[in-house]
Each structure stands twice: as structure tokens, then as C-alpha cells.
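Study the following:
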Amino acid sequence: MTTKKKRGRLKRTLLVILLFLVALLAYVEIVNINHKNMTFRQKLLKAFYPALMFLSKTTGKNGKSMDNTNGLTPPTSIYDLSVTLNNGQQLPLADLKGKKILFVNTASDCGYTPQYEDLQKLYTTYPDKLVIIGFPANDFKEQEKGSDEQIAEFCKVNFGVTFPLAQKSTVIKGNDQNPVFSWLSDPEKNGWNDQQPSWNFSKYLVDEKGILIKYFDPGISPSNPDVKKAIEQE
């Protein structure tokens, strides 16, 4: 191949790459047209969230769910605990008796961050049946570096979040683990489950009597029929 032909092929290749990048940037901006104060990384992650969920579904990665199939009751009551909210106020979990509670560890810079939107839809769909509490944590690849104030603003502006958010804490096992997540991941406390969050947006469902009934991996969307079925079951 002559030098002239090689240069022509190189130019065409570079043009294709340039057009691809322009199209990619345009797609990312269009998807995020109504979102504010998001970094390019956050915009990119949101734009490709559907692809991530498709891969999770087809590969089974981060797609595990677990049931309290034997109806085991907890040795200790979750209603003895309180949640420190991101505004510093205390939320006694005993105040939530009679409703299901979905506990979710969250992060702002994660591929699963768009699940905030689906969580909010659940919260508004089942106002008399369900309470959702988000627990921002920086435990996985430091994907939640913001302050409590920054996290609250990010969630409200970009995803319309109105469900309670806890003060940022640690959710994985260790001396600093949030007491709620210590209860959720310790069978000596909850009766059966030892699964700590596998990544951001792991989900734990507690029923109206304070019994942990389900665990869902991050790859299972809040809009998944199995999640809705678990919420609706009597």
C-alpha cells in the first residue's frame, strides 16, 4: 500500500472516530438535558445505565436475590434502632411499624446511581405501604465523596428524591458499620441473613412486623416485578 493510500485510510479512520465521539457527547447531553450540577462522569454513567442493567440481567452479575423462606423472626428488633438523617434529626424505626421498609445503600458516582429515580417512583407508588431510606456510603471505589448537604441537593435536583436519606456512613462489615446495616447483615440480629452490601444500591426489605424478608443485589432494579411483588405481598 502506498503512503498516499495509508494517509487516506488514516484520515477516514480519524474522521469516523471523531464523528463517533461527537455523537456520544450529543447523546450524553440529550439524556441529561434536565439534570443539573452533574459531573461528566455522572452524566456518562446515567446515559449508559440501561446498558449496565441489560448486562447485569444477561450475565447475572450483581443479580442475586435472597428470601427469608422459612419466615425466621429476628432475635433482636430493628425497631430498637434509630436512623440519623442527613439533616441531623433522628428517625426512630419504631415509628415505621405497620409499613414495609426498604433500606438501600447509595452513592452519587456509581453506574447504579440512576436507581434513585426508580426508588422515588416506588416511594410515591406505595405511600401507605412503604418507606424507603437511602444510606449514602463511600465504601465502594469511593463513589460517594460528597457531604450530606451535597448529596441531598444532588438527589433532589437530579432525581426528585423525597424519601429519607441517612447521614453518610459505612455500610460494610467492620467496627464502623452503621448499626442498621449491622442488623441487616448479621443473622444473630436479623435471624437469617449474613449478606452485606455487595456494591452500591443493595436493597433490604423489612416487612410490617420488623422481619427481614428479602435481599436484592444492585443489579436488580427497584422497578423489577420481583421487588414490587415483595412490597405488595400481605
User: Anything to note?
Assistant: The chain has two domains: 3-59, 65-232.
